[in-house]
Write a structure and sequence with these properties.
three-stranded antiparallel β-sheet; 37% helix; alpha+beta; 3 helices
């Protein structure tokens, strides 16, 4: 399953995420902190959506109520996880 998710409240504007056989196979962020988001994408690749949700959901960025990792979790929820 593939999704392009429009983020809210972050520097990145969209997240492309692909899940196959209950494993995250691709993640790409549009905009945001390039190095950090490339690192995050590589770290979650191969993980189950449930593991990503348990580790990253609710992470905040500074004074914002969300973050790019939290928005990835919202995208996963939209995909049904």
């Amino acid at each position: 399953m593939e999704l392009v998710y429009k983020t809210e409240g972050t520097c990145s504007t969209h997240i492309e995420v692909t899940v196959d056989n209950n494993r995250i196979t691709e993640v790409a962020f549009w905009g945001g902190c390039n190095g950090n988001l490339q690192g995050l994408s590589r770290l979650v690749k191969g993980m189950t959506p449930e593991d990503v949700l348990s580790r990253l959901e609710g992470v905040k960025c500074g004074r914002r109520s969300t973050s790019c990792p939290d928005q990835l979790c919202k995208a996963l929820h939209q995909m049904g996880y």
